[in-house]
Backbone:
């Protein structure tokens, strides 16, 4: 399994380029970020190349649509597409191959059918831009019970349906095991059903969103099953560590690779 690190939650006392080298020293060869606004793409690329780390993805807009406009509202489409163009340009310059897509929140006064159509229309335009840029989009369903109340896409099955309906080879699903454990459970079943469109994975322990062994999900078992199903992408860590970042990351690798809790 290829394990990755979200560098927005680890080594947060350091400038972002330095975090890349720290992740490599902890044993990881894949890393990712959230919004690129405060980062220099050239510096990011150089730091990643120096550390031997592949940067997997950035994020186009905020989860609720407050940055980037979101997809659920047609009135915010132009803002979203402008944000998309800027993020795809950043990814190309920084050497990042994918961008996370968040739908934004439920829009008051719009029906579910209207919001679905708005998301599909917006993603089709977004996918056309991504295809030209050579960047993959990964749509992320989130939990609405704890972290993202009001978020529109809160189901992996719903997200997978959207990816299939968009119909672009550059449109994939981000399966976040933490969010989907909260919303759906049956993680193996949902992953198996939607493996054809899954392009990336996230993980954290639930409850608490801390280390993977501090929760109800048996992650060593889950990782084995994901590998058996044929997933060959990155399984990324996106949790808030209770230990020092380097210690937490090393213990997580040991936990996942040896099937033992540290």
Residues:
């Amino acid at each position: 399994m290829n394990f990755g690190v979200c560098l927005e939650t680890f080594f947060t006392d350091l400038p972002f380029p330095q975090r890349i080298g720290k992740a490599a020293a902890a044993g990881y060869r894949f890393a990712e970020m959230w919004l690129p606004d405060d980062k220099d793409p050239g510096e990011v690329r150089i730091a990643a190349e120096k550390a031997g780390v592949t940067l997997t993805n950035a994020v186009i807009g905020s989860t609720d649509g407050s940055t980037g406009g979101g997809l659920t509202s047609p009135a915010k489409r132009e803002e979203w597409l402008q944000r998309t163009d800027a993020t795809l340009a950043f990814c190309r310059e920084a050497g990042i191959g994918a961008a996370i897509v968040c739908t934004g929140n439920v829009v008051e006064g719009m029906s579910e059918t209207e919001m679905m159509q708005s998301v599909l229309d917006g993603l089709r335009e977004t996918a056309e831009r991504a295809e030209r840029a050579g960047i993959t989009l990964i749509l992320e369903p989130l939990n609405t019970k704890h972290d993202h109340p009001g978020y529109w896409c809160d189901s992996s099955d719903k997200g997978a349906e959207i990816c299939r309906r968009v119909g672009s080879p550059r449109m994939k699903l981000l399966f976040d095991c933490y969010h989907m454990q909260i919303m759906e459970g049956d993680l193996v079943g949902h992953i198996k059903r939607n493996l054809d469109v899954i392009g990336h994975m996230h993980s954290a322990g639930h409850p608490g969103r801390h280390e993977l062994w501090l929760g109800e999900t048996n992650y060593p078992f889950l990782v084995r099953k994901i590998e058996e199903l044929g997933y060959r992408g990155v399984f990324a860590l996106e949790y808030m560590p209770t230990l020092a970042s380097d210690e937490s990351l090393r213990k997580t690798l040991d936990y996942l690779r040896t099937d033992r809790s540290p």
User: Anything to note?
Assistant: Strands lie at 2-6, 30-32, 54-55, 57-59, 98-101, 136-139, 171-176, 198-203, 234-237. The domain at 2-258 is CATH 3.20.20.150 (TIM Barrel). Residues 112-133 form the longest helix (22 residues). The mean pLDDT is 97.
